[in-house]
Design goal:
Immunoglobulin-like; 2 domains; binds dinuclear copper ion; five-stranded mixed beta sheet; alpha+beta; 33% helix
């Protein structure tokens, strides 16, 4: 999760987020190069003495500074499209989780396992444990197995919400009357925090998401206990 003074992206917990970070760094590098070049040119303009009386046009430089930016943009567009299609790819998921946005909490359904379902509310500050995270911890976490392909179905019951988990590179809108799909692969155990990121009303800030990523055998133990109880 993000902690104090962390201005960049969170460490990735999935291959897709890793690729998103690579793309971010790549785009930022190009951005810095352009900014430095344009900044240098603008500063140098101040020290320019107009000494060439016959300079009226320059076909060559016009060609260069028209075509060069177009080529630079291609270097951003191509990896961007690659990522876009990569994010949309569904790789034979072994588990499907359905998350439904409500005003103002999430509810979840494990449709593969006898339709286990539960609500997930934020823990209010006055009920928070000493090691709890304010505005971020929930009463019922989503348990998911690590190293497995997971499909998420997102919808909403009232207004538009957004199921967003930065460390996994997931951000899907939950829209009433629609069923959106995404998938991810968690490559390490741990707790991954997220928040609703579609302005959904007065308590928009208070419907966080917590995923508990555990080894597969732990998950099977948890799910079989839940089915039997
Ligand atoms: Cu739900 Cu914002």
């Amino acid at each position: 999760m993000s902690t104090w003074a962390n201005l960049g992206l969170q460490d990735s917990a999935s291959p897709l987020m890793e690729q998103l970070i690579f793309f971010h760094d790549h785009a930022l590098l190009i951005l810095v190069m352009i900014t430095v070049l344009v900044g240098y040119l603008m500063i140098m303009l101040f020290f320019n003495s107009y000494i060439n009386r016959f300079l009226l046009h320059g076909q060559l430089i016009e060609m260069i500074w028209t075509i060069l930016p177009a080529i630079i943009l291609l270097f951003i567009a191509m990896p961007s499209l690659r990522l876009l299609y990569l994010l949309d790819e569904i790789n034979e998921p072994s588990i499907t989780l359905k998350s439904i946005g409500h005003q103002w909490y999430w509810s979840y359904e494990y449709s593969d396992f006898n339709n286990i379902e539960f609500d997930s509310y934020m823990i209010p500050t006055n009920e928070l444990a000493n090691d709890g995270f304010r505005l971020l911890d929930v009463d019922n976490r989503i348990i998911l197995p690590m190293n497995s392909q997971i499909r998420i179905l997102v919808t909403a019951a009232d207004v538009i919400h957004s199921w967003t988990i930065p460390a996994l590179g997931v951000k899907v809108d939950g829209t009433p009357g629609r069923l959106n799909q995404t998938n991810f692969f968690i490559n390490r155990p741990g707790l991954f925090y997220g928040q609703c990121s579609e302005i959904c009303g007065a308590n928009h800030s208070f419907m966080p998401i917590v995923i508990e990523s555990v080894p597969v055998n732990y998950f099977i133990k948890w799910i079989s206990n839940s089915v039997n109880s």
